[in-house]
Every structure is written in C-alpha cells, then in structure tokens.
Design a protein that fits this description.
By secondary structure, the protein is an alpha/beta fold. The chain is built from 13 helices and 14 strands. It is globular and about 65 Å long. The chain starts with 12 loop residues before the first helix and ends in a 6-residue tail after the last helix. Bound molecules: erythose-4-phosphate (E4P) and phosphoenolpyruvate (PEP). Phosphoenolpyruvate binds next to loops.
Length: 459
C-alpha cells in the first residue's frame, strides 16, 4: 500500500491537487472523502503488477509493428450495468472482433477492455441545463448520479468504493469467461447469436468461423491442440481521472518496490487532463503500468514529445501509447507532422486511433451521435498516414457495446437519425452497437491486409 506520503515514489494527494487538477469533482464533505480513500487503500489490488508488465511486453510488440491493439468498451460504465449479460455481451463482441482481425489479417491482436473501471467522465461543461433548471453535469457513476435531480448530482465519495466493488465484480467475471471456456476458439460459432447472424456482417462472420473450425479440427487431428486455443489474454483499462481513486489504488509492488496503479492494467490520460505540469501526468509518470495519452487536434508535436519525455524518460518499450482522436476531416492533415516529428525525436510509442471522440455531433433530435462513415474514414485516414510514413498503425480504441443499441448512425443496417430514440442507452457518448462493431472489425481487417499486400519498397 502507498501511504499518502510515500516520499519520492508518489506525491501525496494534496501535492497532486496543488498542481491544478482538471476535471475533478468538488466534494462537499472532506471527511467523507478521507474515509473513502482510507477504505480503498486497504482493499486488495484489482490487478497484479506482473500482469501489467505482461501487457507492456505485448504493447512493445504493437509499437514494433508486430501486433495490433483492440481496445474497446463503454463510453461510461454504470453500476446498474454490472450484470452477467452485459459483461458477457461486451466481451463477446470484443472476442468476435479480435477473431476477425486475427484471422482475416493474420496479425496477433492484443485485447484490452475499456471496462472494470471506466466510471468517470471529463465533461465540456460543469453544468447541464434542462428547461429552466441548471444542475452540475453528470461526471460518471464514480462521481455523481445520472438522474437529473439536485440530490443525485452532488458528488459522493462513497461512489469511489462502489467503483472498486463494481470493477472487482466485472473483472472477476471477465477472468472466469476468458480462462474458463467461454473464450475457447471452438466457441467461435456460439459467439454469433441469431441477431447478428441475420445481418450481412453476421453471415460474413459465419464464413470466417467455418474456416477457423475446419482449421481447428485439422490441428486436433494432427495432435496439435495448444493452450492458446482454449483461453485468451485479456486486460482492463480506463481513463485515470479521479485522483482520489487512482492514488488510493497505487501500491508498491513487492517484487520490484516500484509503484503500480492496481486499479487496471492500462491507464490513460484524457485529452482534457494531459497538461504537462498537471496532476494526472505527474501521477502516471510515477507508476509502472503501461499508459496511454489521448491526443486531440490541438496537440503539437512539441506537446507530444514533451509528454513522452515526462511519461517515458527511459524510453521503455511498451510503456507509452499515443491515442490520436483528430476527427475524420482533420486526421490526414494533422497526424503526419505529429508522427514524423515524434519519430524524428527518437520517441517510440504505439500509435492507436480513437475514431470516436473527434466525430461527435448533435442530431436534430438532440441525441449526441456519430456517423459510422466518419468512424471508418478516420481509421482509414490513420492507416493512410502511417502507410505513407512507413510507420505502424498500431490499433483502434473504440466506444462500443455488445448490445443492439441505436446510438451511432449508419453502418450496414443504415441506422438513421430518426432511429436514435429506439434504444439509446449510453449515459454519455454514443457507442457502436454489436453489428456496427463487427463491421468495423472486417473493414479494419481489410485495411490491415491491404497494407500487407503493398510491397515494402513502395511504402
Ligand atoms: O467521453 C468523453 C467525454 O466525457 C465526452 O465526450 C464529454 O462530453 P460532453 O461534451 O457532452 O461533456
Ligand atoms: C473522454 C474520453 O476521450 P477524450 O479524452 O479523448 O475526449 C474518453 O475516451 O472517454
């Protein structure tokens, strides 16, 4: 456990806050905050430091161009959403996407859930107004309630303990699924439930599943049935946003005597909290987990290089992932100078594309949405830029759900703006539904394959 004053390893909370921490809740009762933090400091780790190191090794392969990262899950998890069906559905769509990417593009896929901790949200505005009532904005279940009442919107630190418990329950189920038979490759057909089967992409998936099944039968016949066919490696991630939670979950690893944030394997710093001298960069600069930083359209190459110097001064392979979220209309202009200058500075990172956060708009009905075509266009732009520079498009970071929601428009089922109200369930940003997620996986697999077909000297 890291005491609040572990000298030299982790600054105490007050010192962190004194740096000016963006996007933090204003708690009305400091004693209640202290009590929640103390409670969390005594809880067991959610992940083990050695697992974080394993993920770092895998991300090093991503940064070398030898693997592809699939990072996905809800925009904002909710406490009510911690049900067996919900967790299974999310895992299932990620497994299906990973199979498509691995099989269709012949590339190892590192699987990273945006889950078991993704409960805190940075917001554009501190308040939300409905009619003539203005209340504090909803900042995720980690902070306050979604219900639009004054009581619900008051930040409650006990929620941080609830985040821990919900994350533990989710991770427990995920671990059971991925090692206990559900993720066995022989389940590849069973993951395709009837709803998806009846869609165009579902039929395409069935073909892939048939081919995999034949290959598995052949392998078994010749006596090869490796352990990797029966389980998958799966890791957890979330935005490290609320300092009280991340600080309380930072512990000294008994093997190495170094600090790890044991709330997840991978933590990222958001676009709104990546200030070089800010608290979030300071805290994550001290922990040994693999970490990410979101880079939006205002990021200069100097910003990115300075972030790398602060967060990865020893240039450790797999330590740092840059997750760009420029917007479909900007990525082809903004990404090339960024990647070129970062590379010229000798900084080695995994480059990952978040095609969601630069492409949000408000539909005429008032729903926040994203166009599937914009999502694809940003990923295609990301691939084109890296292709042009000879660098590796290392992965995608996607807000998605395993359910058949109606939050993003377009895709093979041509979801229209008028359909958004049918099943809009996100408490923050719109997610790809299950069919759209699978369609994305096939399109990205095509992009990866086409890249492979290009002769190296033509790159
Ligand atoms: O998920 C990211 C942010 O929390 C979200 O885009 C902010 O949304 P807002 O602009 O509605 O506050
Ligand atoms: C807030 C998020 O993204 P960004 O920091 O890129 O806006 C997010 O991924 O939930």
């Amino acid at each position: 456990m890291v005491p609040d004053d572990a000298p030299g390893l982790i600054p105490d909370l007050a010192t962190l806050h004194a740096r000016g921490a963006a996007q933090q809740p204003t708690y009305p009762d400091p004693a209640a905050v202290q009590a929640a933090v103390q409670k969390l400091r005594g809880m067991p780790p959610l992940v083990f430091a050695g697992e974080c190191d394993d993920l770092k090794t895998k991300l090093a392969a991503v940064s070398r161009g030898e693997a592809f990262l699939l990072q996905g899950g809800d925009c904002a998890e909710t406490f009510d959403g911690v049900t067996a069906d919900n967790v299974r559905n999310k895992l299932r769509v990620l497994l299906q996407m990973a199979v498509v990417l691995t099989y269709a593009a012949s590339v190892p896929v590192v699987k990273l859930g945006r889950l078991a901790g993704q409960y805190a949200k940075p917001r554009s505005s501190d308040t939300e107004t409905r009619g003539d009532v203005t209340l504090p904005a909803y900042r995720g279940d980690a902070v306050n309630g979604f219900a639009f009442t004054p009581e619900s919107r008051v930040p409650d630190p006990q929620r941080l303990v609830d985040v821990y418990n919900s994350s533990a329950a989710t991770l427990n189920l995920v671990r059971a699924f991925v090692t206990g038979g559900y993720a066995d490759l022989r389940q590849v057909h069973a993951w395709n439930t009837s709803f998806v089967k009846s869609s165009g992409v579902g039929a395409r998936y069935e073909q892939v599943a048939d081919e995999i099944e034949r290959a598995l039968t052949f392998m078994k016949a010749i006596g090869a049935d490796p352990e990797e066919f029966h389980r998958v490696d799966f890791h957890s991630s979330h935005e490290a946003l609320v300092l009280e939670y991340e600080h309380a979950m930072t512990r000294i690893d008994s093997r190495t005597q170094a600090p790890y944030d044991v709330s997840a394997h991978f933590l990222w710093i958001g676009e709104r909290t990546r200030q070089l001298d800010g608290a979030h960069v300071e805290l994550l600069s001290r922990v040994q987990n693999p970490i990410g930083v979101k880079l939006g359209p205002t990021t200069t190459a100097d910003d990115a290089i300075a972030l790398a110097e602060r967060l990865d001064p020893h240039r450790e392979a797999g330590r740092l992932t840059f997750i760009t979220r420029m917007g479909a209309g900007k990525i082809r202009d903004l990404l090339p100078p960024l990647v070129e200058k970062v590379r010229a500075a000798g900084v080695e990172v995994a480059w990952v594309c978040d095609p969601m956060h630069g492409n949000t708009f408000e539909a005429s009905s008032g729903y926040k949405t994203r166009r599937f075509d914009d999502v694809i266009d940003e990923v295609q732009g990301f691939f084109d830029v890296h292709h042009g520079l000879g660098t590796w498009p290392g992965g995608i970071h996607v807000e998605l759900t395993g359910d058949d929601v109606t939050e993003c428009v377009g895709g093979g089922e041509a979801l229209a703006e008028a359909d958004l109200g049918n099943r809009y369930e996100s408490v923050c940003d719109p997610r790809l539904n299950r069919v759209q997620s699978l369609e994305l996986a096939f399109l990205v697999a095509d992009m990866l394959r086409r890249r492979d077909e290009t002769p190296v000297d033509a790159r």
